[in-house]
Design brief:
Layout: H1 3-17, H2 24-38, E1 49-54, E2 64-71, E3 74-81, H3 92-100, E4 106-110, E5 114-118, E6 133-136, H4 142-149, H5 158-183, H6 187-194, H7 204-235, H8 267-280, E7 289-293, E8 298-302, E9 309-314, E10 322-326, E11 332-336, H9 347-355
Parallel strand pairs: 3-4
Antiparallel strand pairs: 1-2, 2-3, 4-5, 5-6, 7-8, 8-9, 9-10, 10-11
Helix pairs in contact: 1-2, 6-7, 7-8
């Protein structure tokens, strides 16, 4: 089993196990130790994974970190663990203290579901207050799996991780700020845009007046952007691809009967295809995005080539709709969706899957 499969298999187990984990120790055994093992480290070998490593802090003796991953006898990753229901925001200071007295370059704070990865980008040998990578195992993204893979024993390289850590950190922080401003625009955000269209003084009452306008304008722009991409995808759709040519049969007179096929492409499948095509618009030339409908699933791929599968859709069941991606070994990884509109939530995964064939 490859790394991606191991991580996704562990992620799928969390929902079924967490209710039976009443303590931090149970969380470690059921969730965190398997995670460390998935990274290629032997959790039962203290030369690789040392539990309860001493991290004396000044006059405080006997302070211990839950796990230290070692290389050549020195810690390279410190892992501080909490119960799966614990809010990690209440515990990052503890990891910071351990990190600052250790030679480890990376620190991980986790409750078995959320994994926060820290390093010392701002000041050497002093852990940053914000993580450069945060992974939610219940909402796992393909791009995050690729970042986690860098911590695998077989691929671990400090320089490689640090080279992307800074970008990951600031991208994450920017996305958080943008999301916050879009949902609840701050006065400064409102003023920045408002002053470009309003000639008067921006008094508090004007800010109050413009705040809902800015929020609505953002929502309208995003809707227009999605709509434009969808229209572009539909416009570029010239031909309908099918998995196989319909079979024909002859009647008693020798004349060819009407084509017959068990495959029926539904309106919902076509709409899903157009959504995926719009998501990929600007990354993949529209004419390269094609589909084939099979009896059990609807596939979207590039260049009319089933070896270049972007995703599969299982839409026949109203209660079990799935958007599915294939890994390098062609194993399926299902993502449940309530409706085809949820496909927009997997934009990064769709683009990442398509880029493999560009």
């Amino acid at each position: 089993m490859d790394f991606k499969d191991s991580i996704r298999q562990l992620a799928e187990r969390i929902d079924t196990l967490k209710a039976d984990l009443p303590t931090e120790e149970a969380t470690k055994n059921a969730l965190i130790m398997p995670f460390i093992n998935a990274l290629g480290y032997d959790v039962f070998n203290p030369r690789e994974v040392l539990p309860e490593m001493c991290c004396d802090i000044g006059t405080k003796k006997g302070e211990k970190i839950d796990y230290a991953i070692l290389k050549d006898g020195e810690p390279i990753i410190l892992i501080e663990c909490k119960h799966w229901q614990q809010d990690l925001n209440l515990h990052d200071n503890q990891l910071l203290r351990y990190f600052n007295v250790s030679k480890a370059k990376f620190g991980v704070l986790t409750n078995g579901i959320i994994y926060r990865f820290y390093t010392d980008l701002a000041e050497p040998n002093k852990m940053d207050t914000k993580p450069f990578l945060e992974v939610n195992m219940l909402d796992l993204k393909d791009a995050q799996v690729e970042e986690l893979k860098k911590f695998h024993k077989s691929y671990f390289n400090v320089s490689d991780i640090l080279s992307s850590a800074s970008e990951l950190k600031y991208m994450g922080e920017l996305k958080t700020i943008i999301s916050s401003e879009f949902s609840a625009p701050s006065p400064d955000f409102v003023k920045y845009f408002g002053k470009q269209v309003y000639d008067g003084f921006f008094m508090p009452k004007v800010v109050e007046q413009f705040t809902p306008l800015v929020k609505r304008a953002i929502g309208s722009y995003i809707n227009d952007l999605i709509s434009d991409r969808l229209k572009a995808a539909i416009k570029d759709e010239d031909t309908v691809q099918t998995e196989q040519q319909p079979e024909t049969s002859a009647d008693t007179t020798g004349k060819a009967a009407a084509p017959t096929s068990k495959i029926v492409t539904t309106e919902e499948e076509l709409q899903a295809y157009y959504i995926i095509k719009s998501v990929l618009h600007g990354v993949v030339p529209p004419e390269r995005v094609t589909y084939r409908d099979a009896q059990t699933y609807f596939a979207v791929f590039l260049d009319d080539n089933n070896r270049k599968t972007v995703c599969r859709l299982y839409l026949d069941s109203p209660t079990n709709k799935r958007l599915t991606f294939l890994d390098d070994s062609k194993a399926e990884h299902h993502n449940k969706i309530k409706s085809i509109d949820d496909i927009y939530n997997f934009g990064e995964e769709l683009i990442s899957a398509a880029k493999k064939f560009l």
